[in-house]
UniProtKB/TrEMBL annotation:
Top-level taxonomic group: Bacteria
Gene3D superfamilies: alpha/beta hydrolase (3.40.50.1820)
Residues in Phospholipase/carboxylesterase/thioesterase domain copies: 18-208
Any one GO MF annotation of this record: hydrolase activity
The entry's keywords: Hydrolase
Listed name of the protein: Dienelactone hydrolase family protein
Transmembrane segments: none
Amino acid sequence: MADLDPDAVLWSADAADRAGRPLLVLLHGYGADERDLFGLVPYLPPAFAVAAVRAPLTPPFPAPGHSWYPIEGLQNRDPRHVTDAASALIAWLDATAPGVDVGLLGFSQGAAVALQAMRLQPERFAFAVTLSGYVTPGELPGDTALAERRPPVFWGRGTRDDVIPAFLVEHTVAWLPEHAELSGRVYPGLTHSVSEGELDDVRVFLEKQLEAKTAED
């Protein structure tokens, strides 16, 4: 399991300003890095402290950036690679933000890792935003507890997304409603990307999570 680089994290606030605030962790997609989703910060509710982390692997040349798990070759479709990436994320959180309320926002590979992390530690994460992603097939020991807890999950995807295989979309369509309080939208004409309309929906979802936390407190 490759560790996350603590020096390759972009924060929306310094340590003093993060105290007492819920944490939103951004998980980029294949071939990108921590800067990719950090550009979303102005569109997100300012109540969150935001951390954009860098995936630990480097794709084979000539692919740029970083990846959470390998996708080259059939042998690299092993779901254990996604679990390893989610475990690395959890280890980084254990060292960086113990006891902090954490939500996850991932794109593509990052979305798959976000959902896998929730499955590994169902009580650890308040919610997840998954954009152009999927649930990794297979069973994990935490799935039953996750289905009982049913944390809020937003899943956004486009009708013209030809990157995520159809069988993974079909699996996610069946799996998520059984394990989460699912909300989201299918965006007509959207490719493997994020649109302004989707960002508007994400912001509404995040604001609802803040309202729910305030009500609990």
